[in-house]
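Troubleshooting log. The previous structure file for this entry was overwritten by mistake, so regenerating from the original sequence record. Sequence copied from the archived sheet and checked twice against the printout by T.R.
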Amino acid sequence: MAFVCSTAWWRPTTNRTAAIAEVSFYHLDSQPLDWALPRLLLRVVDSGRRALVVTGNGARLASLDQLLWTFDEVSFLAHGTAPDPDAARQPIWLTEGTDNPNGATVLVLVDGAAPADPQLAGFERCLDLFDGADERALAAARGRWSAAKAAGHSLTYWQQSPEGRWHKKA
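Regenerated output below.
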């Protein structure tokens, strides 16, 4: 499976106030979260940024932790979860809470998690991944889109092709 994403996504953003974040919605169609999440996180880490991954399902935290260690046979994504020590040193922090102990500038929302702060204070970007085959997840994502738009954030919408590539739709 090929993973394609516009390189413009990773360029530093200029001419925007600190209160406005770029929010990208990722509509999972052909590949599940377990396939897409590590690939997006690789892009975040490769860009020199840190990520805070927030799940709306605390029971899933352990499986996401395992996923980032094992998603690829030859590599892994260094990360931490509570109560791991040295949270500030981790490029990726997994949580179901609102803490940001690694100083992440990229917020990643999965499993229906919503941002604790609609203004996304402290974050440059927010990635919202949702299952397009789940009507409840789709409706919840629409609600988060409306809230992000009302907060004045810059929005983009990405949808997967059958091959798992991302295509910008809005």
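Confidence is low (pLDDT under 50) at residues 1-18. Archived copy saved in two places this time.
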